[in-house]
């Protein structure tokens, strides 16, 4: 397994991985109800630059010639700018409706938006390797902390994050679900 910068060619596999990780959030970011329509829009977001779900913000774990895991990461101070194209898409799709995305990241943190591993490749340390790669990238960029959100209903993910040093800072709501906002110093 190697971890590398994602490219637009990873879009199909990335869309599935993103959807597996964020479910309802993916529906709200795409404005779609049907899974195939959600996946198609996630692919388009991934292939385009300048949005939070872009390949530019993504590292992928590649094994057997395909992306089997990913981590989307960007600085919290860029969140509003990265959300703007998504909001513009939603407002064009639904004229006359105003959209607002929940604030997921504190402005001072390098933020892990999504981490996901194909279940067929679980238990091989891919998630841990992706987290470590994101932390290394954050350190190299000179950031002092890295953060993520974990759904209160996902104790396995929380244990992984705690094992690599994340600690809960607060609770937040994203699309009406409670998440633990966890931070680690870099």
Write a short abstract of this structure.
The chain has helices at 11-30, 35-47, 79-93, 126-140, 155-163; strands spanning 2-5, 58-63, 66-75, 110-117, 145-151, 167-174, 177-185. With 186 residues, the chain is of the alpha+beta class. The protein is globular and about 45 Å long.
Distinctive features:
28% strand, seven-stranded mixed β-sheet, 5 helices, 39% helix, 7 strands, alpha+beta, globular, 186 residues
Percent helix:
25-40%
How do the SSEs run, as a string of H and E? EHHEEHEHEHEE
Give the uncertain stretches in residue-range form: none
Summarize the biggest pleated sheet: 7 strands, mixed
Strand content: 25-35%
Provide the gyration radius in Å.
15 Å
Assembly annotation: single chain
Q: Would you tell me the structural class of the helices and strands?
A: alpha+beta
Strand order across the largest sheet: 1-2-3-4-5-7-6
From the N-terminal CA to the C-terminal CA, the straight-line distance is: 25 Å
Mean pLDDT: 96
Q: Can you tell me the overall shape?
A: globular
Number of helices: 5
**DSSP E strands, number:** 7
């Amino acid at each position: 397994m190697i971890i590398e910068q994602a490219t637009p060619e990873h879009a199909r596999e990335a869309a599935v991985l993103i959807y597996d990780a964020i479910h309802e959030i993916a529906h709200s970011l795409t404005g779609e109800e049907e899974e195939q329509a959600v996946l198609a829009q996630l692919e388009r977001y991934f292939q385009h630059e300048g949005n939070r779900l872009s390949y530019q913000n993504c590292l992928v774990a590649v094994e057997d010639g395909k992306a089997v895991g990913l981590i989307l990461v960007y600085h919290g101070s860029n969140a509003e700018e990265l959300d703007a194209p998504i909001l513009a898409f939603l407002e064009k799709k639904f004229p006359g409706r105003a959209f607002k995305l929940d604030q997921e990241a504190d402005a001072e943190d390098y933020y892990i938006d999504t981490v996901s591993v194909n279940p067929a490749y679980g238990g091989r340390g891919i998630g841990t390797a992706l987290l470590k790669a994101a932390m290394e990238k954050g350190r190299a960029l000179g950031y002092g902390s890295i953060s993520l959100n974990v759904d209160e209903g996902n104790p396995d993910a929380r244990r992984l994050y705690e094992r690599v040093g994340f600690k809960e800072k607060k609770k937040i709501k994203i699309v009406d679900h409670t998440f633990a906002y966890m931070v680690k110093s870099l």
